[in-house]
Amino acid sequence: MKLPVFFIKRPVFATIINILIVIIGLLAFKNISLREYPDITTPEITIRIPYPNASAEVVESEIAFTAENELAGINGLTKIKSSSTYGEAKISLKFSEEVEFSKALSDVREKVATMRSMLPKDIKEPQIYENNDDDDPFYYISITNPNKSSEELIHFAFLNIQNNLIGIPGVADAQIWGASYSMQITLNRNKLYLYKINVSDILDKLKLYATNLPAGKINDSIPITLDISCLNEQDFSNIVIKNQGSTTITLKDIADIKLKGNEDFRIRINGKPGIMIAVKKTINSNPLKVSEQLTKKLEKIRQTLPADYIITSEYDKSDFVRFSLNNVKSSIIEAVILVVLIIFLFLRNIRAALIPLITIPICMAGCVAILDMLGFSLNTLTLLAMVLSIGLVVDDAIVILENIYKYIEMGKSPLQAAKEGSKEIGFAVVAMTFTLSSVFIPLAFMQGSIGKLFIEFAVALAGSVVVSGIVALTLSPMLAAKILKPGNHNILPKIDLLIYQIETKYQTLLSKILPKKILLSTTLALLIVGSAIIYNFIPKEMAPKEDRGIVGAFIQKLSGISLNEFDDYSIRVERASDSISEINKKVAFISKHGSQIVNVLNDWSKRKRSAKEVKEEYQEKAKLIPSVQTSIWSEDSNLPGMESDNRGEINFIVKTTLSYRELIKTLDDMVNTLKKIPLFKEVTHNLELNNIGYDLKFNKYKFSQLNILPQHISDLLAVSFDSKYVQNFLKDGISYNVNLSLNYKPKNINEIYIFNNNIPVSLGGFSELKLSAKANELRHHNQMRAAKINIELKPEVNFDQAYKEINNFIHNINEPGIIIDLGEKLEKFRHTYLQMLFLIALAIFFIYAVLAIQFESFIDPLIIIFTVPLGCFGALLFTKLSGNSINIFSQIGIITLIGLISKHGIMIVEFANNIVKEKNASCMEAVIEASKLRLRPIMMTTFAMVFGSVPLILSFGAGAEARNAIGYVLVGGLTIGTIFTLIIIPFMYIVFKSLNKKSLTIT
């Protein structure tokens, strides 16, 4: 190849090209975004529709069905789910990936506006949320003060802290969580009876004073506002409810009006009452920079607060990103050091070792430039690709340099050696560069979120390899000609002697073993069969479980008890973790829907046990607490699309056209059957119909005789047994709820009166209150009633074993009206698993196709492809021995390995072909000589790539699980694969070349 010679003659040109790559890379580095994982914007939208005081059944019938029917017609909608709970409907919409997110959002808003008139008038305004990775809070701040109530802390935070945080660049929102103020209007039952006032009359009056109204302009320029809103207790007290003769009855005459805290929600910070501020970052903002700015701002705020206010960062998601990225950076540095040592040991020349070393920063700069130009980011995966690329990018430079060095050792001048050596090896370098790059082309065809996720990894690795090829053909030969000295400057001659002895013994081994066709054929067959056997014994899963430093507990709200009684149970579960030394902080959220306890663990360097081990201990402690259903969970993956389900390891969805009563019978039968399967530790379903509830049955004839609307009765019942949300009011510009309740909780409906034309009528006179079982939550999946069956696996059970068992169970279900869908985790596992197997096969085909074009032969690429099963055997063996699983990361490692291991075959086949042509040697003579000549560069590149991957194996702490998975695949595949490649590839060369000659002779 003449290209290296061209640049040897033009050193300035070669230097400028590589300097430009570095400059562009540095500029890109300042501009490129930093994330934990690549940006995957999935078109998912959530709609929340509050319906105060409505039971789950009412929410389902009045909101969920109507909303689903209207929303189902939106273009590109692939999945619609809903959840109806007490007082709220939540509808989740998922769109196909081809749909533009902004268009989907616009369509949803339009549909929600249209269907608003079809829904009950008492609902609060529907809220639409965009679902994306940046939509979840990432930084949590607590505020406590022993002298202040929760509502006072909330108000203080709104006035003094929230805007300070939102003003930070990169912060999208700062949500304040806790028990906030509410204007509580408690009606006096006796006064209502005395003055003959209905609850509905009071509600109508209150709504008149809900907002300010526009009242035109003066001189067409000065606006007038009709200020009738109520701002404090006195304003509400003076609202006139009724004029009775000469008597004016105001709200204070019939009610007690107090500004007080919301008693339906509470937060504890490390066992003490407090509030939380949940900070969201803007899309694509750097979480590390935003976190750093937030920490600085908190310190400034802290200095301005009174001494009794304690403001603390409780949990920062960027800590995991920071630790993970720091570990990757450390791996890069370690890989560089190890690779440089390997190069030096093989070449024993400091000047020679510098040439491949210069390649590393140039290739990394080029990689960053490519990522930035394509709109990608620096993240865990692209940095992981850079770690892998350390061994790869020096590979081409090593091959070029080693061949040049060989000519210098033969006595030629560095200039002449650079010309002849680079010209001889140039084609092989191009072939290896294209081969390794082509192996990642199939990843571009990978669909779904996983495809989007790993395209950045593929581009980073392939980009580094392409840049390394450019550097190897432009800069490396020129530097060799300029900085290497003539003669042998070996500072470690003993290593030279050792390598010579290895080459000689290797040549002797080949001469003896290559004629033994049966032995080598059997060995190859055993390796392939062995790979299949090992593969079946390795556990398979979507992604390795990560230790993200969070362990929590969800406690299901008990039916029929007060929040205070329920909180006593929550405190017991909360305190169950007190003796676990790994727990650093804890936050408890208690509401009428249940309790969520979040335990933040010490950082990875300060604890010996993993989050999984902590979770198991917490689980055993929580089991000892009677009467409550507690689910212990840990956050084990933040990989988009692979987040863990906190209610079970895996689940599937049971849908029906029947009633929930019939569905729960089916679910109970399924759970009982699944519990008998020995693989499963625990099996539950999430449909509960045993909450205490009541139905008010009207005597329609009696009711029709009255001048009363059903809504009036609904309002009366809402305030009689609970409090009813009425409207909002402003306190210092902050919006809070106005709630209405009765001062007496009636024992039965006979004690509840409504006025019909000023005549009191007992509800018991025309209706009957019946006890009934109610649902806590009613779910729909694609417009069908649905529930989930959650399955927790035993520790020794593999995910793929469970998948097969569940799949068999599902296929045996044949009940009318019942349809079963795989849960998202199972469905993604099935889809991704099959897709990755297809991509591995496609990667092998692409390598074959590229090599066939480069060698202009169908036979030579086939010989080289035999390196793949040899490398895969080593990869699978190391994966099994290390206790790792086959997952998305290890499969990406295998695709990378396919490209790496095939480079050995390319060097042997290319040189053997040249020897056959130039010396007219036999196939055996040519391949033995070529193998001996290429042994040193093969050993150098293998050691460089293996030692470049060793830091991945040794990695620990945040995010280490993914790095370990890829590391074991590459180290095992390259180590064992190279050993067998050095024997099997020469043998296959002889076999295929002999067959080719016979076919040509016959022709």
Automatic annotation (TrEMBL):
GO terms for cellular component: plasma membrane. Keywords: Cell inner membrane, Cell membrane, Membrane, Transmembrane, Transmembrane helix, Transport. It is found in: Cell inner membrane. Its main location: membrane. It holds the Pfam family ACR_tran. It is a multi-pass membrane protein. The chain crosses the membrane at residues 12-29, 331-347, 353-371, 425-446, 453-475, 518-538, 833-855, 861-879, 938-959, 965-992. SUPFAM superfamilies: Multidrug efflux transporter AcrB pore domain, PN1, PN2, PC1 and PC2 subdomains, Multidrug efflux transporter AcrB TolC docking domain, DN and DC subdomains, Multidrug efflux transporter AcrB transmembrane domain. This is Uncharacterized protein. It comes from Candidatus Jidaibacter acanthamoebae. The lineage of its organism: Bacteria, Pseudomonadati, Pseudomonadota, Alphaproteobacteria, Rickettsiales.
